[in-house]
Amino acid sequence: FMLDAVASVGAEPLLPDAWGVDLCVIGAQKAMGGPAGVSAVSVSARAWERIAANPAAPRRSYLSLLDWKERWIDGGRTALPHAPAQLEMLGLEACVARIEDEGLETVMARHASAAAATRAGAVALGGGLEPYVHEARDAAPVATTLRAPAGTDAAALVAAALAADPALPLVAGGGALSKEMIRVNHYGADATRGAVLSSLAALGAVLTDAGRQVDIEAARRAVSKTWPSR
Ligand SMILES: *Cc1c(COP(=O)(O)O)cnc(C)c1O
Fold first, then answer.
1. Which structural domains are found in the chain, ordered by start?
2. Is the minimum distance from the CB of 95 to ligand 1 under 6 angstroms?
3. Mind listing the pLDDT tens digit for each residue in 128-143?
4. pTM (2 d.p.)
5. Selection from 198, 185, 197, 204 nearest residue 221 by Cα
6. What distance in Å separates the CA atoms of residue 66 and residue 68, rounded to the nearest whole number?
7. Beta carbon of 109 within 6 Å of any ligand 1 atom
């Protein structure tokens, strides 16, 4: 049982052992607000057995879990088997320290609030914009997908919004979804009320330019109500 939890770690509870996950892979570049280029993997006893029994398992490689087990774990975790990615490791250390300062529960709550506020704000904004995921309980806390209004192009709307403010955490869906899906990546440093409000205001502005009727004030009120500032 392999779990890619890159989009979950830091944004929602993640309990690989309790869930019987054999290989759980995380990265720091999403909800943890850390560097890309480092990742961690947890390996269950069952997975170690399967990997060890596989004659084709990678060896003599940074990507060889068996090498890491023998040279790092079984070696008492004293010397890294390869030249470490120093800057990424220092970045990771700073990011973990920040999470410990804020508290993991608070970090997760911030992501849940960002998702709820983005969803409520998008509905209040109107103009034909709709949550892509029908039920709020099925939506991820790390990012909110929105359906672009019929007759508009999601990628064009996002491009226009980013032309006005390149720092907005907006992206269009990939591949076949590029015309219909807008994603608000409210994670890490962007899991804030400010990022949510700016994203909704920018979407409101480009929808207005596209001739749609939106209510940016109503969106603002919905965000404040869903995610009160205290
Ligand atoms: C973001 C993400 C990744 C990593 O992709 P990057 O291109 O490195 O950001 C992997 N898996 C999932 C589920 C993700 O959301």
1. 2-102 (3.40.640.10), 104-226 (3.90.1150.10)
2. no
3. 999 999 999 999 999 9
4. 0.93
5. 197
6. 5
7. no
